[in-house]
Write the structure tokens for this entry.
Amino acid sequence: MKPGNFFSYGEHEFFEYMLAAKPDAAVCEKVMTERQIFYDTYKEGAAGNTKPHIAVSSFFAREEMEETIIRWVQRICGKQQGFAVTLNNYSGFPPGTIYLRVQNVKPFQHLAKELHVINTYVSDCLCPPVKFVSKPYITLAGCLPEEIFFKALIQYAHKSFHETFLVNELQLLKRKHQYDTCKSINVFGLQPAEMNGSTNS
């Protein structure tokens, strides 16, 4: 999957959907502060365009499929236990994305496995296949010029960031096209998470 561009199909008859985990308010504020620092330093990165989130999967579907998709995701999420996410320092995807690393990827891999039934459904409805995130992350800055990207990557390799938050729900986001604003259309609760012992990768 190409980082920073989850919705790479542009068919107008489809809406674009993304299932995402969001950090709590305190961690969200710290990430937004880091984004602003990046933007103030490099004048690139579009600091406030989107709220911090970790994409779990993304897909295209017709609007009339929404009710069935929500019912499937609700059923799956209701059986999954919440989990702790640890953000640990920075890395980058060439050619232009600097991101915060998710230390513990196993909960996201497990979710992706359980959500494969959604891929079967959208494929049977002649929609593009679901994209599942194999390397979860939170974007710090994206769409960077190559020169800025490599300069920032070197500098951020020496910076530290370490925060942990609980994921007790997933949000389903929707937009009409790549340049539209994502709108939350449903929230799916997970079973209560426990902090201790949940952060191992």
User: Anything to note?
Assistant: The radius of gyration is 17 Å. The mean pLDDT is 88. Residues 25-42 form the longest helix (18 residues). Residues 29 and 52 are 9 Å apart (CA to CA).
